[in-house]
């Protein structure tokens, strides 16, 4: 690749001739690919090689996966740049926390955060792009996460809805993308120093709104996929000096493939900038990445919730008859913990039956893509289970399953075709291949498996 002249001049000045040559040489090499295993599911069936673990990240390995393999479509693996695995990892979220992934698409970090929460607490995954939020929803759904609110808003709109709300916020900020040069020619073509400063200003705007949503004492994880000090150390110094944050050491990370921040590139009066993490391609872990963990100073002040109007209390609830339609389907399956008390929480909106992670009446004024776990659709005198329910049911062992016999049947099903099966199972059933659940189907009396794999996911 032909690197921009201004980029090369910049990093020769910052790194010196020897180190900058290593960077430029590494940017000419192939990218390193890796994947994570989904610990929410039984991943013993995964056939990919586990011979090369990613340093510091449990259940992550170098290797390339295929988006049409059963491991992917069943949500057992996620393809992710190994460096990009670290922001969610260093967040160290705890069970029961309220967590925000503010710039979340396509979902690698959200799946990591949701996996760590283990269904306890709340994950809000927001993406401002109406196009990219679709991939975010697909990936969270495939991962079997039931406690996520997926939104499509700018940070200012979200901040009005969630003041002082979150225990942890991850901001993987839009940036100049220097760390993606090996993966994206577009990032190279678009690069210039003016764009770096534009990104820096946008990052500050986003972080001002994130600050409004974080509880005092809460944790902010800031990351980018760029090498630029203007977007990395300088932003962290600004958070400390202007917004009263404190840089936290990331002491549990010790790999020699990970470097540290440079106080001299931003503010020499903040030696704690050396506690931030830098990932350089010449260190051979993955692509370029920067990560910092900070805490917000101050004492938490409880924010009183607005009183809910009484006439809205049962607006989204199902009737007894509607509940019976849902029960007729669910009683065939083993339910994970997130579904044990489903009758008490179930809501209905435009035919969609769902278990909200946040009460729908509390979300007016923001664009919601998915709230918690969507079970399916109520139709005339019946309930039709949905794809997200299939992926969540796949988190526990099931008996009401049709396992496709071979790759040909699997490919046909992914394509949206019906399959003839020999099975004692009748009616709605989970569908798997090689023991990996990836969809709902419906077995008719003559042994035809009707296809319920979503049209938008068909290969």
Give an overview in words:
This protein has about 450 residues and is an alpha+beta fold. The protein has two domains: about 5-295, Vaccinia Virus protein VP39 (Rossmann fold); about 400-459, Archaeosine Trna-guanine Transglycosylase, Chain: A, domain 4. The chain has 13 helices and 22 strands. It has helices at about 5-25, 70-75, 85-90, 110-115, 130-140, 155-160, 185-190, 195-215, 235-245, 320-330, 340-345, 385-395, 405-415; strands at about 35, 60, 75-80, 100, 120-125, 150, 165-170, 215-225, 245, 260, 275-280, 290-295, 345-350, 350-355, 370, 375-380, 380-385, 400-405, 420, 425-435, 435-445, 450. Strand 5 (about 120-125), helix 5 and strand 6 (about 150) form a beta-alpha-beta unit.
The CATH architecture designation of the largest domain is 3-Layer(aba) Sandwich
CATH topology of the largest domain: Rossmann fold
Helix content: 25-40%
Number of helices: 13
**Major beta-sheet overview:** 10 strands, mixed
**Average of pLDDT:** 94
**What proportion of the residues form beta strands (DSSP E)?**
15-25%
State the fourth-level CATH superfamily of the largest domain. Vaccinia Virus protein VP39
Radius of gyration: 24 Å
Mass-distribution shape = globular
Text of the CATH class of the largest domain = Alpha Beta
Question: How is the secondary structure organized here?
Answer:
Layout: H1 5-26, E1 34-37, E2 60-62, H2 70-73, E3 77-79, H3 86-91, E4 98-101, H4 108-117, E5 122-126, H5 132-142, E6 148-151, H6 155-161, E7 166-172, H7 185-190, H8 193-213, E8 214-224, H9 233-243, E9 245-247, E10 259-260, E11 277-279, E12 289-296, H10 320-330, H11 342-345, E13 347-349, E14 352-355, E15 368-371, E16 373-379, E17 382-385, H12 387-393, E18 401-404, H13 407-414, E19 419-420, E20 427-433, E21 436-443, E22 448-451
Parallel strand pairs: 4-5, 4-7, 5-6, 7-8, 18-20
Antiparallel strand pairs: 1-2, 1-3, 6-15, 8-12, 9-12, 10-11, 11-12, 13-14, 14-16, 16-17, 19-22, 20-21, 21-22
Helix pairs in contact: 6-8
């Amino acid at each position: 690749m032909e690197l921009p002249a201004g980029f090369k001049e910049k990093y020769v000045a910052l790194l010196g001739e020897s180190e900058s040559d290593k960077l430029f040489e590494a940017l000419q090499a192939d990218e390193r690919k890796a994947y994570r295993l989904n610990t929410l599911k039984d991943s013993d069936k995964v056939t990919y090689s586990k011979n090369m673990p990613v340093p510091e990240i449990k259940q992550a390995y170098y290797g390339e996966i295929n988006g049409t393999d059963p491991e992917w479509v069943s949500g057992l693996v996620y393809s992710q740049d190994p460096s990009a695995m670290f922001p969610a990892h260093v967040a160290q979220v705890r069970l029961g926390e309220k967590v925000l992934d503010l710039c979340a698409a396509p979902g690698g970090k959200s799946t990591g955060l949701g996996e760590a929460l283990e269904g306890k607490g709340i994950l809000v995954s927001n993406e401002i792009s109406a196009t990219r939020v679709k991939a975010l929803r697909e990936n969270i759904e495939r991962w079997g996460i039931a406690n996520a609110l997926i939104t499509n808003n700018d940070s200012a709109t979200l901040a009005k809805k969630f003041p002082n709300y979150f225990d942890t916020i991850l901001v993987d900020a839009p940036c100049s993308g220097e760390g993606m040069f090996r993966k994206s020619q577009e990032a190279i073509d678009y690069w210039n120093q003016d764009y770096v400063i534009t990104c820096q200003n946008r990052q500050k705007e986003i972080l001002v709104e994130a600050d409004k949503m974080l509880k005092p004492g809460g944790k902010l994880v800031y990351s980018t996929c760029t090498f630029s000090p203007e977007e990395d150390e300088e932003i962290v110094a600004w958070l400390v000096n202007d917004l009263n944050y404190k840089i936290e050491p990331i002491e549990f990370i010790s790999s020699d493939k990970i470097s540290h921040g440079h106080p001299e590139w931003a503010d020499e009066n903040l030696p704690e900038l050396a506690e931030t993490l830098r990932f350089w391609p010449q260190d051979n872990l993955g692509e370029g990445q920067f990560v910092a963990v900070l805490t917000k100073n101050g004492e938490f002040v409880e924010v009183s919730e607005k009183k809910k109007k009484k006439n809205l209390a049962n607006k989204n609830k199902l009737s007894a008859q509607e509940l019976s339609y849902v029960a007729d389907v669910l009683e065939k399956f083993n339910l994970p913990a997130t579904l044990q008390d489903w009758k008490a929480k179930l809501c209905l909106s435009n035919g969609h039956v769902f278990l909200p992670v946040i009460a729908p009446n509390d979300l007016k004024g923001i664009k919601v893509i998915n709230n918690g776990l969507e079970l399916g659709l109520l139709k005339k005198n019946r309930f039709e289970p949905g794809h997200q329910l299939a992926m969540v049911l796949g988190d526990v062992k099931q008996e009401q399953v049709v396992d496709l016999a071979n790759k040909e049947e699997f490919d046909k099903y992914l394509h949206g075709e019906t399959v003839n099966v020999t099975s004692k199972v009748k009616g709605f059933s989970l569908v798997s291949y090689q023991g990996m659940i990836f969809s709902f189907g419906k077995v008719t009396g003559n042994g035809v498996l009707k296809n319920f794999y979503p049209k938008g996911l068909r290969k």
